[in-house]
Amino acid sequence: MKRSGLSRVGPAAFIKANLPISPVLSIPEILLHTAGPASGLWRLAGRREADAPPYWAYPWAGGIVLARHLLDWPEMVAGRRVLDLGAGSGLVAIAAAKAGAATVMAVDVDANAIAAISLNATINNVTISAVAADILDAPPPEAADLLVVGDLFYDPSLALRVMTFLRLCQASGIEVLIGDPERAYLPHRELRRISTRAVTDFGAANSGGAVQAGVFSLS
């Protein structure tokens, strides 16, 4: 009975109650609701095969390096319309807003991520439009001139879909920036490295959790 009661708690209420707010390592100016050992995240994420993994509950290396880059180089984003693809916690979207973006939209397929993005935007005092959708088969977004992508190259089929979409966006005049710790399916030959930084990555066991992550543009 207790478990069924928990299942009726909405994602925003669950996140506020169980995921404490803490600064992001390497980005202390951004605060996020982040899962810990006592969060009981499975109660929200679900255990069915069809349930989306709760990637949004943790900061990942690609998002960290890209968010840090935008904050360090605000001229790359100031006054622009930004779309954060696969936004997760909203970390990169929040960095874009803090760096002076005119508008910021965060898109993710996980409805729980959308709830987290809205909460995280509020605690960072920024405005973000959060949308639950899979837009990879849609036309390039008309309301964006900069597309930011963190940590979407962990799966081969997803990586192919993402690159096809990013190429269409680039062809329509949208600039693309990618943050990634060189995961297995990152298409190196199609990218130009802009910068590299040692950052933490969730689940990394070596070097105290630090990995070399890069910011890339499409070549």
General shape: globular
Question: Could you describe the largest sheet, including whether it forms a barrel?
Answer: 7 strands, mixed
Question: How helix-rich are the residues, as a percent range?
Answer: 25-40%
> Strand percentage, roughly?
25-35%
Walk me through what this model shows.
The protein is of the alpha/beta class. It contains seven helices and nine strands. It has helices at 2-7, 11-18, 42-45, 61-72, 91-98, 111-123, 156-171, and strands at 21-24, 27-33, 81-85, 103-108, 129-132, 146-150, 175-180, 191-200, 210-218. The protein has a seven-stranded mixed β-sheet, with helices on both faces. Strands 1-2 form a two-stranded antiparallel ribbon. Strand 6 (146-150), helix 7 (156-171) and strand 7 (175-180) form a beta-alpha-beta unit. It is globular. The N and C termini lie far apart (55 Å). Residues 1-6 have low confidence and may be disordered.
